[in-house]
Design brief:
Blueprint: H1 4-58, H2 62-71, H3 74-84, E1 90-97, E2 102-107, H4 119-122, E3 127-135, E4 140-149, H5 151-154, H6 156-199, H7 211-248, E5 251-257, E6 263-265, H8 267-272, H9 284-288, H10 293-309, E7 313-320, E8 326-337, E9 343-352, H11 354-382, H12 392-405, E10 411-420, H13 422-429, H14 431-448, E11 454-457, E12 462-468, H15 472-488, E13 491-493, E14 496-498, E15 501-510, H16 517-530, E16 536-538, H17 541-563, E17 567-575, E18 581-592, E19 596-598, H18 600-609, H19 613-633, E20 640-645, H20 647-650, H21 655-661, E21 668-674, H22 683-695, E22 698-705, H23 712-718, E23 722-725, H24 727-731, H25 741-754, E24 757-761, H26 766-775, E25 779-781, H27 791-805
Parallel strand pairs: 15-16, 18-20, 20-21, 21-22, 22-23, 23-24, 24-25
Antiparallel strand pairs: 1-2, 1-4, 3-4, 5-6, 5-9, 7-8, 8-9, 10-12, 10-15, 11-12, 13-14, 17-18, 17-25, 18-19
Helix pairs in contact: 1-6, 1-7, 2-3, 6-7, 13-14, 14-15, 17-18
């Protein structure tokens, strides 16, 4: 009977163990279910993130992409898309213009080598995001941008987070099952002991206990033992799964006794720190020595804060491995505390995020570089690269802003500045000197204006200034004068002295009516230049009428030239000694169906502005040559034909080839060059062209001599065959009492000394003809002999009126 208590101890132990294992199994099942729910919720969040990833990448660059599509700027669009595809999950991006054509497309291959299993969760079809590009200011669509995201690559971090969640959940479940096992072991054993004392007091009741109850108890214990074995196997499987998950996610698990400082690491942790087996001291200090010195203080502070508050320890820090490498780790730990709040234990995981940090840093650097490039591009788009002033685009923007911000009756003054003689500086000293002058002029304009004024360079040698405020008219008047004075000051560039000037056109408008202010200032500038340069002019309505007339003349003249409606008239030139016909000058005339008879003084300046002079010269020469051939065929001799030739025609590429094609001329040919041509400026190049003309038998004359800039040195260098006195000199030829007649004689003497003939034009009276002949002019031309005539009138003159007209 004394052995009875010992015989019942084993069944009691087996029963308690089975109950404990059952409780542990339930705890593991509940923990696994909660972990699965958490992973499912995280998967839903990740799916939503993948769906919106494309839009988030496009959003910060949408305005820049819109500008690129609006300007069809493939280079800028390519740079922007390249920044987007820096995100590893992006496999392609493109900008499509509003015509449906692909402006630019950028793609990169997706690296799915280690992520194929994620395709079963998130699918393998790329997620395409398409966002329209609209210019907000104009409410105008200019295209759309599409981004393709690979869901498998985008969810790469999800696998790591899932592994962490799975490991943490299993650890929690394991810890809970151990606590429940311990609890049931204790409570069940105590209950069985109490039953034993009831049925076998003082060791005598054991034999009296019913045998069937003992058998039932043994059966229950065996069942519990079987359940224990199943739970142990499940636990082993769970542990293996945890090891597999942590290994796949490069997770290391650590467990630190905060009181003693003992720090236990698994093999994965040792691999993260590249520590050889047995090389870790398993202490808090041993871990801290491997933390990067710059991160130690923050890491200690955060760990201390978590121990004090009980919150989860979360930290990212750098480490130095035992091999000398530097890595970045993310670490999370649960702090276990006693009932009084004392931190006892920390159980956590660490993961290597070095590559993630490097990739994030690369993306940040790429984004910063892109943003810097966009800022620079935006600056360059609004500023002149040479002077740093605003450009035409920023000027338009400033005017629009003034129209929106100022009251409708606010005054705005616009100054249009054009440098005089700037082309001469470029030609004489080179473009580098011209650029130096432009920068210097920009500095002077900044010094003359106030900070609130807007300055822009709007052309090669053109600047604009915008003033606003009630005093802007007075300020514009003063500023126009000071700008002209400042620009006239010589500029020294090393050994060179650059001399320029400026003309200024000024226009005034209300802030609500700025649409024509630039055009008005341009018209005023034209008037300032027409009146002699180096001055400023205000716009008025009469100037607009004149500008509109010039526009009509330019349009109609272009049409008339294309249709061959320009006429060629001939004016005789008479030999002063023999009174014989010396030759004729071909003059252009134009009768427009709308404008009526238009004089050369009206349409030739417009032709020069419209680059039509060279075409008119070619037309006049061809028509005049055809007229001379017809007149000679009728039996009348034309010894010589003079035609006016502009500088544009002289430097035209087809001049010589056209002359060669028209060879076999019926008379001598002379080209008359206006004295307003700067012969000193074009000396070398012009002399070469003139020599090629002389080689073809063409004589060279200088027309309107005495009204322009031909110098004696230029005459010596060019050596024209003849000079034609301007009519202003012809008028003073007979004014012997004024002392000006010797001027004509001096010119004639100079011509004879240089071997140059002298023609006087504008001869209107017999007295003038006698005086000019006496002073040495050998050829005379003017109304006294004949006016310019069309071909039929010239034939009548040469047949009938010639004798009476030639009397001297």
């Amino acid at each position: 009977m004394a052995d009875a208590p010992a015989s019942t101890a084993a069944p009691r132990g087996r029963l308690s163990l089975k109950l404990a294992l059952a409780a542990a199994g339930i705890a593991l099942a509940i923990g696994s279910a909660l972990t699965a729910l958490q992973i499912y919720a995280d998967m839903r969040v990740e799916r939503a993130r993948i769906d919106t990833l494309g839009a988030k990448l496009i959003q910060p660059l949408q305005d820049s992409l819109t500008r690129s599509a609006f300007r069809l700027d493939r280079i800028a669009a390519h740079d922007l898309l390249t920044a987007i595809v820096q995100e590893p999950a992006v496999i392609g991006a493109s900008v499509i213009d509003d015509f449906g054509d692909t402006l630019v497309a950028v793609s990169q291959p997706a690296d799915r080598s280690a992520l194929q299993n994620l395709g079963r969760v998130f699918g393998s079809t790329p997620v395409t995001t398409e966002i329209p590009l609209v210019v907000d200011e104009l409410d105008m669509p200019v295209g759309r941008v599409t981004v393709q995201v690979d869901p498998i690559v985008a969810a790469a971090d999800f696998s790591k987070r899932t592994a962490i969640v799975l490991a943490a959940g299993l650890l929690k479940s394991l810890l809970l099952s151990l606590i429940l096992s311990w609890y049931f072991m204790r409570t069940t054993t105590r209950r069985i002991e109490r039953l034993s004392r009831i049925y076998a007091p003082a060791g005598t009741m054991a034999d009296a206990a019913p045998r069937d109850e003992i058998d039932a108890l043994e059966t229950a214990l065996r069942q519990r033992e079987a359940e224990k074995t199943g739970l142990i196997e499940a636990l082993d499987l769970s542990v293996e799964r945890v090891k597999l998950a942590t290994s796949a996610a490069s997770l290391g698990i650590w467990d630190m006794d905060i009181v003693s400082g003992r720090n236990t690491w698994d093999d994965a942790m040792l691999d993260l720190y590249e520590i050889a087996p047995g090389g870790f001291e398993q202490t808090y200090e041993g871990w801290l020595r491997r933390v990067h010195p710059d991160d130690v203080a923050l890491t200690e502070a955060r760990f201390a804060e978590s121990c004090a508050t009980g919150e989860t320890f979360v930290n990212r820090f750098r480490i130095r491995t035992d091999t000398g490498a530097e890595r970045v780790l993310d670490s999370r730990a649960r702090i276990i505390r006693a009932g009084d709040g004392t931190a006892l234990r920390a159980i956590g995981v660490s993961v290597d995020v070095t590559e993630d940090v490097r990739r994030e840093r690369s993306l940040i650097e790429a984004r910063e570089a892109t943003e810097a490039a966009l800022r620079q591009s935006a600056y360059e788009a609004r500023h002149d690269a040479l002077t740093g002033l605003g450009n035409r685009r920023s000027l338009e923007r400033h005017l629009r802003k003034l129209g929106q911000t100022l009251e409708g009756d606010g005054d705005v003054c616009f100054l249009h500045i054009d440098l005089d003689r700037f082309k001469s500086i470029n030609d004489a000293f080179g473009h580098a000197a011209g650029d130096f002058l432009l920068v210097e002029i920009a500095k002077r304009l900044r010094m003359l204006t106030e900070p609130r004024d807007f300055i822009a360079r709007v052309g090669g040698d053109e600047f604009s200034i915008v003033l606003d405020g009630p005093d802007c008219v007075d300020r514009a008047t003063r500023l126009g004068a000071t700008i002209i004075e400042a620009c006239a000051q010589p500029t020294r560039n090393g050994a060179m002295v650059l001399r320029s000037g400026a003309s200024v056109g000024i226009a005034l408008a209300r802030a609500g009516a700025l649409c024509q202010i630039q055009e008005d200032a341009d018209i005023a500038l034209y008037d300032a230049k027409r009146r002699g340069r180096g001055r400023y002019a205000f716009f008025n309505s009469a100037l607009r009428v004149a500008a509109e007339k010039r526009k009509v003349i330019a349009d109609n003249l272009t049409e008339a030239l294309a249709e061959g409606r320009l006429q060629v008239w001939l004016q005789p030139q008479i030999c002063a000694r023999s009174q014989a016909l010396h030759g004729v000058e071909a003059l252009v005339r134009w009768h427009d169906p709308v404008l009526g008879e238009t004089t050369p003084c009206d349409f030739l300046p417009v032709a020069a502005e419209s680059d039509l002079l060279a075409k008119i010269d070619a037309h006049v020469f061809a028509e005049a040559m055809a007229m001379v051939r017809r007149i000679r065929w009728l039996g009348h001799d034309i010894p010589r034909l003079s035609v006016n030739v502009s500088l544009e025609r002289l430097f035209a590429e087809d001049l010589l080839s056209t002359l060669d094609a028209q060879g076999g001329w019926p008379c001598h040919v002379a080209f008359e060059l206006l004295e307003t041509i700067d012969f000193d400026r074009f000396g070398g190049e012009l002399a070469q062209v003139l020599q090629q003309l002389r080689d073809r038998g063409i004589e060279i004359e200088i027309d309107d001599f005495g009204s322009g800039r031909a110098s004696v040195s230029a005459l010596s260098a060019i050596r024209p065959d003849r000079i034609k006195l301007d009519r202003s000199i012809t008028r003073i030829a007979q004014e012997t009492g004024t002392g000006r007649a010797p001027l004509v004689k001096a010119l004639a003497d100079m011509g004879r000394a240089l071997g140059i003939g002298l023609t006087a034009e504008g001869v209107e009276t017999l007295e003038q003809a006698h005086a000019l002949k006496a002073l040495g002019c050998d050829v005379l031309q003017g109304y006294h002999f004949a006016r310019p005539m069309p071909e039929d009138a010239f034939l009548r003159w040469i047949e009938r009126d010639r004798t009476s007209s030639l009397a001297i």
